[in-house]
Amino acid sequence: MNTIQANTFNEIQKLLTKKVTKLFLLSAMLVPVLTKLLVNHLFLTDWMALPTENINFTLLDLFITILIPLFIFIAATDLFTGEGERGTLFQVRPISRIELFLSKVIAISVLSLFILLLEWLAVMISSAVFDKTFDIAAIPSSLGAFIVSWFPIIVLTVFAIMLALFVHSSVLAISGMIVLYLIMMFVPYVLPGSLYLLPSAYLDWYMQWLSDVSFRWIIRTVTYLCSSFSLFFSIGYYMFNRKEA
User: Fold this and answer.
1) What are phi and psi of 205, to 5 degrees?
2) What are the pLDDT digits (tens) for 53-110?
3) Rounded to the nearest 5°, which phi and psi values hold at 174?
4) Contact between residue 8 and residue 110 where contact means Cβ atoms under 8 Å apart
5) 74: closest CA among 25, 38, 7?
């Protein structure tokens, strides 16, 4: 466990040195603040008519459906396809392949959670400053919605890693992930029956938690997410384990 923790910290450090990671972290802080400024001071009447909580959830949708998936695709490509191209994927180190694979998965997942929490903090602070209708009682439900959103993001993470291990070109990996993700987002409009078979379908599942949640729905959804995670993780590790040092 100490080996996984140490290597996870190392993988997180590698990602944090990337300019693109810093850009996503900066976006998590600035986008909510700039949005609140636009809504409250530039007379955007359509948005001003919305309750504050709706605007906050719109910001959450922006991150969990666009910005964080994009970060995951870039991070997965860099830590797997990119390192494979550079010949640094399997450096000489006292760590097994499963530990190395786990640490990379955890690193991307942790940074995704950090971006989510950073966005939530920026949303709450900007709401308290700019929104006259800000209700401190809404903080727990808002935080819960952001944290719950992390679980389908973990599934998307192992899905992206699995895809990254199928190709040997970083350009092909990142472009392929984006195209496939866009297809998954638009396929349900053509084939509605396929909606709940796609990993992208559960990114907004926090909405269900804000209403009356049925126990049956919770069990079914959690089972699907866990099954998807197990499938993508297993295939990803199989591909990772087959790679030559």
Assistant:
1) -70, -10
2) 567 788 888 899 999 999 999 999 999 999 888 888 877 567 889 999 999 999 999 9
3) -70, -40
4) yes
5) 25
Could you tell me which of 124, 125, 130, 115 has the C-alpha nearest to residue 63?
Answer: 115
Q: pTM for the complete prediction?
A: 0.89
SS3 17: coil
| d(C-alpha 79, C-alpha 91), whole Å | 13
Torsion sign across C-alpha atoms 159, 160, 165, 169: positive
**Three-class SS state of 71:** helix
Rounded distance between C-alpha atoms, residue 194 and residue 208, angstroms = 19
Nearest residue to 200 (alpha-carbon basis) of 180, 215, 220: 180
- Answer yes or no: are the C-beta atoms of 36 and 9 closer than 8 Å: no
152 within 8 A of 225, measured Cβ to Cβ: yes
Residues 160/231, Cβ–Cβ less than 8 Å:
no
Residue 205 near residue 221 (C-beta atoms within 8 A) = yes
Amino acid identity of 87?
G
Q: In degrees, to the nearest 5, what angle opens at C-alpha 206 toward C-alphas 202 and 210?
A: 140
DSSP tag of 50: S
Q: Angle 139-148/150-164 helices, nearest 10 degrees? A: 20
Q: Say which amino acid occupies 139.
A: I
